[in-house]
Design a protein that fits this description.
This protein is an alpha/beta fold and about 220 residues long. It has helices at about 1-15, 50-65, 135-140, 180-185, 205-215; strands at about 45, 100, 110, 125-130, 150-155, 170-175, 190-195, 200-205. Residues about 25-30, about 55-60 and about 70-85 have low confidence and may be disordered.
Length: about 220
């Protein structure tokens, strides 16, 4: 993998010096994260994959009698060479700006980004309020040793703050919708970002959170 990454960057550098490189802001495939990810790792948990695969299969079966152009349909592979634009457990966690801290009357209305709350000494649990039971999940988090995790409830613009959100370390309004666009899907609203900045888990709820950390922290 390292050799392939160096080969990719060398080719880009050669094209740049030769004046042949044309930037593509939607670079995907082997250029997405330069192919470096941990989607294959046994210590990441992605519940979005099987759920969305089943939903896609059901939709395909309903549409099989219609003639649609499916040239853009792509399978997901471990190294991102057929990158479909969706975040997966094992990918590097993207930043999202425009988050306004709320939940406390004296909070200043300053904009934050996710990179400001990620840290190298703790896991960061993102709870998207419209897709997960925040109160149950935050109660589950409190059962773990202090300092292991920081939690952030993320609420859509002009949506109410859910009950129990005061248990979180942060409560943000996603003013511009960037965090929801980057992280959420139809089925999963709970994301764990590891201390190294990699998405360790994309989950449905608190029971899955326990399953993830039980696997991660289990001793041989």
């Amino acid at each position: 993998m390292i050799a392939e990454m160096l080969d990719q960057t060398t080719k880009l550098l050669d094209k740049t010096f030769a004046g042949e490189y044309e930037p593509d802001h939607k670079s995907g495939g082997s250029l997405f994260q330069l192919g470096v990810n941990y989607r294959w790792s046994p210590i990441v948990l992605d519940e979005r994959n099987p759920i969305e695969a089943a939903m896609d299969a059901e939709e395909d079966s309903l549409m099989e009698d219609y003639d649609f152009d499916d040239e853009e349909d792509q399978k997901i592979d471990s190294y991102g060479t057929l990158f479909d634009g969706r975040l997966r457990a094992g990918d590097r966690a993207p930043d999202s700006c425009g988050l306004i801290q709320t939940g406390h009357p004296n909070c200043p209305s300053t904009s934050h980004s996710l990179f400001q709350i990620f840290g190298s000494t703790h896991h960061t649990v993102l709870l998207f309020a419209d897709a997960v039971d925040c109160e149950r999940t935050l109660q589950q988090i409190r059962r773990y040793p202090p300092g292991l995790m920081k939690s952030a409830v993320i609420v859509k613009h002009r949506h109410p703050v859910p009950s129990g959100a005061a248990l979180a370390d942060y409560v943000f309004e996603d003013r511009d919708g960037h965090a929801h666009d980057a992280y959420t899907s139809r089925v999963c609203g709970l994301v764990v970002v590891r201390p190294d900045g990699i998405v360790g888990a994309i989950l449905r709820g608190p029971s899955s959170l326990h399953q993830y950390f039980q696997t991660l922290l289990a001793r041989p």
